[in-house]
Amino acid sequence: MYQFVSILSFLELGYTAATIPKMLANLLSEKKRISFSGCLLQIYFFHSLGATECYLLTAMAYDRYLAICRPLHYPTLMTPSLCTKIAVGCWLGGLAGPVAEISLVSRLPFCGPNHIQHIFCDFPPVLSLACTDTSANVLVDFVINSCKILATFLLILSSYVQIICTVLKIPSAAGKRKAFSTCASHLTVVLIFYGSILFMYVRLKKSYSLDYDRALAVVYSVITPLLNPFIYSLRNKEIKEAMRRQLKRTRALG
């Protein structure tokens, strides 16, 4: 689990770096500009890293399933080499994900004025600027996002259904609490992350309220990465103990 959490931390650094620096620069600048190639690159990295996070959260759910439902076999099943292979698979799958969508968008004609009504470049606001029918693009986006987001979410859900069934069979209340506590952080992150992206990307309509889209974008691009370190840190006994020791040392030095 620590291996996956460290990869998730590194992933979210890139995930936020794809959008937030440019977004902050635009907030401070009177001329809010981005080139078309820069916009496509921003969309590519944002979606590829977002897809990688979906796959990684699924892998973490599988890790929790093995740890709770098959604890005696866990050390032999979830080996370091398997962790590495799963992580590499998540990255490769994520990086390859938005290639088809980016290719289709790059061929669209844009007549102007090209004002993106969003806080960063994304498929829905860019498609709304095209001066041609984008039904095919919307359909491709819907199919790819549905397969990617819904499939991983259902896999996570099936893992937790089996985890809950196993935990309910534990006779002691203390054992149940301990088992659930190992999943609480991951489940919280999954609910926040998927709760926003499901409403944003698994839809066929080309446009929703701008305020609706922006609010959801802030949740999954800013708030979720901001909360994740606190969720995983404050739920972890080792990290809390390390923080207490550090505070004691600071007071002693002071």
UniProtKB/TrEMBL annotation:
- Specify the G-protein coupled receptors family 1 profile domain's residue ranges: 1-232
Superkingdom field: Eukaryota
| InterPro entries per UniProt | GPCR_Rhodpsn (IPR000276), GPCR_Rhodpsn_7TM (IPR017452), Olfact_rcpt (IPR000725)
UniProt keywords (A-Z) are: Cell membrane, G-protein coupled receptor, Membrane, Olfaction, Receptor, Sensory transduction, Transducer, Transmembrane, Transmembrane helix
Which Pfam family name is an example for this entry? 7tm_4
Query: May I have one GO cellular component term?
Result: plasma membrane
Under the heading CDD domains, the entry gives: 7tmA_OR6N-like
Coiled coil, from the record? none
* Entry membrane topology: Multi-pass membrane protein
Keyword Cytoplasm among UniProt keywords: no
Q: What is this protein called?
A: Olfactory receptor 6N1
Classification lineage = Eukaryota, Metazoa, Chordata, Craniata, Vertebrata
